[in-house]
Amino acid sequence: MKLTSTIFRMLITSLTVCLLSSIVVAENWPQWRGPQGNGISSETDVPVKWSPDENIAWRLEMPGPAGSTPIIWEDRIFVSSVDKDMLSLVCVSTDGKQLWSKTVGKGNKNVRGDEGNYASPTPVTDGKHVWVFFGQGDLACFDFDGNEVWAKNLQEEYGKFEIQFGMSSTPVLHGDNLYFQLIHGKWSSEPSRGIVVAIDKSSGKEVWKTMRLTDAINENKHSYASPILYDDGKLQYLVTHGADYVIAYDLKDGSEIWRCGNINPKANYNDTLRLVATPAAAPGLIVVPSAKGGPVLGLRADLKGNVTEDESAYKWVMERGTPDVPSPLIHDGLVYLCRENGNLICLDAESGEKIYEERTVAERHRASPVLAGGHIYLTARNSGTVTVVKAGRDFEIVSKNTLDEAISASPAVSGGRIYLRSFDALYAVGK
Question: Rounded to 5 degrees, what are φ and ψ at 127?
């Protein structure tokens, strides 16, 4: 009897541990590039194979297309969307039911067949509230029940967005503030005068504003990239990308810490080199993409001042072959670059040595790569084909999964599922 009781307790304990383990593994995806802002999920049991008829938990029609990534917090999913001329935030449960939808603004601009409309920026959440920003300047805060907390328009406050395809930058949420880079300007020889601004998340009031001055001209003044947070436990700052420069700012007061050019080399200056891909960071390293086949810079993180001509600031430089839209991914000492044509480049993070360049799907790629469970997920735009590649120094395609729906949004991973936002619908892939 005593032995039976002991075995029973052991079974209960084991079951509890298993349940707790499954809970721990389920990770929120609160922003565009995941929990750490680097495109990496800590989850291990993630699907690698699916089709329209296989391994799909549910599919929910969306009111219109968008390039923004769905974000997930526990049992809530938030997606931005256009609905004809209206701009909306939609809340969906993880069982595939729409809970509410709120119109935030109007005046959508269709860019390249909805590849980059005004619902391109991704919402962000802290688990209590969700903030959503649209390309015509509307910014709003909601609670999880869909009640508006505050709303404002950044064009009304900071001037007209003079940018060809709309402001697509996703804000960084850190601590009490939302951080925005508003990098744009008229097509002219006048130098760029963008701004970086911190906004209090609770009230919507400005905390600080910094002019972001550069010598970029013409289309180079337009940036479609997003800021990122660099945090290695010792150094912490905001990294902005656009107008020929990557520039770091102090989070507290917006003062400039360092800047680096050479993204658009002056010796062969291209005045149409607008930046779209966002930098990526790992401890001690910031990987800076450019555009239209230009360079990729591997920078040290402990920089001060203008380091453009300081050779010691560069860990390495890849002279040609940058991704145009997909952002870099850094993991386990390797840098992954997904080019627009579907080629995947793998570099050594320390030296910049090219380990391989291999073809995945010969289609335009707009979404940024995501890593989960030891695999990299690369999304082709037209067919919605997601190529799953084994992470590591040896190139290996694990699967190619086609939904036959256009996708420009990056995947999100949470609770053992992959969430894919096509132009038509939101998919939950997995059990």
Answer: 95, -10
Residue showing tokens 């001060």: 304
Beta-carbon contacts of residue 128 (< 8 Å; ≥ 6 apart) = 143, 144
Backbone angles phi, psi at 98, to 5 degrees: -70, 125
pTM, entire model? 0.93
Closest of 168, 161, 125, 128 to residue 144, by C-alpha: 128
- Give the span between the Cα atoms of 158 and 153, in whole angstroms: 9
Q: What is the DSSP string of 203-230?
A: T--EEEEEEEE----GGGG-B----EEE
Q: Which of 152, 156, 119, 159 has its CA nearest to residue 135?
A: 119
Tens of pLDDT, residues 14-25: 444 444 444 445
Q: What is the pLDDT of residues 271-283, one digit of tens each?
A: 999 999 999 999 9
Q: Is the dihedral of CA 9, 15, 18, 19 positive or negative?
A: negative
For residue 249, what are the contacts with CB-CB under 8 A and spacing of at least 6? 196, 210, 237, 238, 240, 255, 256, 257
Q: Which amino acid is at 406?
A: A
- Say how many residues make up the chain: 431
Q: Which residues contact 101 (CB under 8 A, 6 or more apart)?
A: 63, 88, 89, 90, 91
The tokens describing 241, both together, are 């990308």
CA distance 322 to 233: 29
Query: What is the identity of the amino acid at 364?
Result: R
Single-letter amino acid, residue 253: D
Collapse the DSSP code of 254 into the 3-class scheme (helix H, G, I; strand E, B; otherwise coil) and give the result.
coil
With the C-alpha atoms ordered 47, 50, 52, 53, is the resulting torsion angle positive or negative?
negative
Average pLDDT over residues 363-372: 97
- Residues contacting residue 313 through CB under 8 Å, at least 6 positions apart: 260, 299, 300, 303, 307
| Count of helices and strands (H, E) across the chain | 2, 33
- The per-residue DSSP string of 125-183 comes to E-SSEEEEE-TTSEEEEEETTS-EEEEEEHHHHH-----TT---PPPEEETTEEEEEE-
Alpha-carbon separation of residue 365 from 324, 342, 360, 415 (angstroms): 9, 6, 10, 26
Phi, psi for 177 (deg, rounded to 5): -125, 150
Cα–Cα distance for residue pair 164/158, rounded to 1 Å: 17
Task: Give the span between the Cα atoms of 42 and 39, in whole angstroms.
Answer: 10
CB-CB contact of 82 with 118 (8 Å): yes
Q: Indicate the SS3 state at residue 25.
A: helix
Query: Which tokens is 411 given?
Result: 């995947």
